[in-house]
Amino acid sequence: MTAVERYYIRFSCGGVGILCSFPQISRNMHQGNQTTISEFILLGLSKHAEQQKVVLVLFLGMYVVTMVENGLIILAISLDSYLHTPMYLFLANLSFADMSSISTSVPKMLMNIHTKSQSISYESCITQMYFSIVFVIIDNFLLGVMAYDRFVAICHPLNYTTIMQPRICALLTVIPWVLSNVVALTHTLLLIQLIFCDSNILPHFFCDLAPLLKLTCSDTMVNELVLFVIGLSVITFPFALILFSYIHIVSAVLRISTTEGKWKAISTCGSHLTVVLLFYGTIVGVYFFPSSTHPDDRDKIGAILFTVVTPMLNPFIYSLRNKDMKGALRKLINRKKFLPSMPWAS
């Protein structure tokens, strides 16, 4: 292709939402003088066949464990009336968000490894990116909401039912879902206006926003500015709420005279605090400490921690450290064992 032809294609593909490509990209759709990408190529986590098998087994196991763990938590909360409280309402939403988060990326990656195909359609890629943004942000906001719930429970126990009334709880549950979809929609609408001219190869295991922005040949200044401003906001506001809540919680705990009372207060928020440390520790470890010379590796590590590892560990942390949750899960398991022996169940 000559320089003139290359320039002509680049110029003629300037329409909003039209993505450009050149002949080296497979499965193009030619419409007159325009060339539009119909798919992206996901390189995954490894190029070696032996390692691909290990990745397949490892991530399949993590996916199954995550879905079973979080599913059991949602089921236990739904069936146990004792857990029909604001804290466990938020926990059920967190579990659902974790199940959805891992489901946006891992099944497609496993299917690609199994079929030995690395392609994903343009529409599927954009959809995957949208929902990956939604569920990571929901996790972040829900951790802030859960911290506020613990603050009210420990610092204002007598007014807890008045403050955390059903209407307020519903509002605190809906707001994270609305805000996360608004943020994801903003990034998506900005992304689909960009032109991809030189490559459709993503050095990632799913369609994430940052790698997609690196592929485009359009000016991404607006996208990066919005990403920085919104990203900083969705991290800062929940973290500030968590920090505010735990400062007051610690202050309230220190005023308790008995050791038993202090441990009881701490135990009510121990699981949540552990999950918070895991979530924000991941952010600090991946994005603030010096990384390797390959920034793509940092993006992959961050994505694995947020979309796979954290959703798998969250229910384990809550079931291990929370006696009410352990009791509900034990009753659920015993109920499953008991049902087959009942005459009406056969």
Describe this structure in words.
The chain is built from eleven helices and five strands. The chain is mainly alpha-helical and 346 residues long. The strands form two sheets. It has a three-stranded mixed sheet with strand order 4-3-5. A two-stranded antiparallel ribbon has the order 1-2. Helix 2 (49-79) packs across helix 11, helix 4 packs parallel to helix 8 and helix 6 packs antiparallel against helix 8. The radius of gyration is 24 Å and the shape is globular. The termini are far apart.
Q: What's the helix and strand layout?
A:
Elements (H helix, E strand, L loop, with lengths): L2 H10 L16 E3 L2 E3 L2 E4 L6 H31 L6 H30 L3 E3 H34 L4 H4 L2 H26 L9 E2 L6 H7 L5 H34 L4 H29 L7 H27 L1 H16 L8
Helix pairs in contact: 2-3, 2-10, 2-11, 3-4, 3-10, 4-6, 4-8, 4-9, 6-8, 9-10, 10-11
- The helix fraction, in percent, is over 70%
- Ranges with pLDDT <50 over ≥5 residues? 1-35, 341-346
Q: How is the biggest beta sheet arranged?
A: 3 strands, mixed
What class, by secondary structure content? mainly alpha
Number of strands: 5
How does the overall form come out from the CA principal axes? globular
Task: Give average pLDDT, whole number.
Answer: 80
Helices, by number, come to 11
Report, as a whole number of angstroms, the end-to-end distance: 71 Å
- The strand line-up of the biggest sheet is 4-3-5
Radius of gyration: 24 Å
Please indicate the percent range of residues in DSSP E strands (runs of 2 or more).
under 5%
Q: What string, H for helix and E for strand, traces the elements in order? A: HEEEHHEHHHEHHHHH
